[in-house]
Amino acid sequence: MSGQAHRTPLLKVENLSAGYGGMHVLHDITLEVYPAEMVALVGSNGAGKTTLLRALSRILPCTGSIVMNGHELAGMTPDQAFGLGLVQVPEGRQLFDRMTVQDNLLMGSYRRQDKAAVARDLDKIYSMFPRLTERRRQLAGSMSGGEQQMCAMARALMAAPVLMMVDEMSLGLAPIVVEQLMEVLAAIQRDGVTVLLVEQDVQLALSGADRAYVMETGRIVHQGLAKVLIDDPAVQQAYWGL
User: Fold this and answer.
1) Distance CA 97, CA 99 (A)
2) Where are the domains of the chain?
3) 18: part of which helix (H) or strand (E)?
4) pLDDT digits over 41-52, tens only?
5) Mean of pLDDT values over 201-213
6) Fold type of domain 2-85+161-240
7) Of 100, 147, 149, 167, which sits with the fewest C-beta atoms within 10 Å of its C-beta?
8) Any idea which GO molecular function terms this record carries (predicted)?
9) Where are the beta strands (DSSP E) in 50-179?
């Protein structure tokens, strides 16, 4: 963390707790994400990763502090947080199945007034995802799982995110497709978009991220440089049985 010592976090979460029906799922979560880095949030199914994203997106009430670019999000609506550039690629894609690929992408830009920039971004997205260029007039729900995940990521990018949160990107996809999507995330990061990657596939996430947080039963139990955590015996034993 020494390289971050004099930088201001893009996202700073302190003592965040949240849950459902009066039962806490998250307990005093504290984490930081710095500009233009990729941070992995990893852990097994049921660890609370998606619940944390729901709290950050303001879909779920919480206690504690969520500061992004100097703005306290804790009292905001989901639309207000989205307006600040906090954009989520949800687990399961959640596309508009009966709309075309292009219409799905344009839905991502619905808040933007800069129509010329939207058009440029659409061209850029199609160059980034050539498969979507071929499918642009196709109904999103008729595509393969991998193509739908590309479409969900592309739709998020059309919102001009400052921080893009990607939830379980690899779920149910072939390894070659996941590899392509990780390359896209790396390119997005190089363009200056900050990425928070939530994954059950711990090895995949740690291989691509700069830093990582490991969650268990609603708590952060490990944190640090991803390249250090990937060699941590405790992490290896817990998540891939080494």
Assistant:
1) 6
2) 2-85+161-240, 95-160
3) strand 11-20
4) 998 888 899 999
5) 93
6) Rossmann fold (3.40.50)
7) 100
8) ATP binding; ATP hydrolysis activity; branched-chain amino acid transmembrane transporter activity
9) 62-68, 71-72, 86-89, 163-167
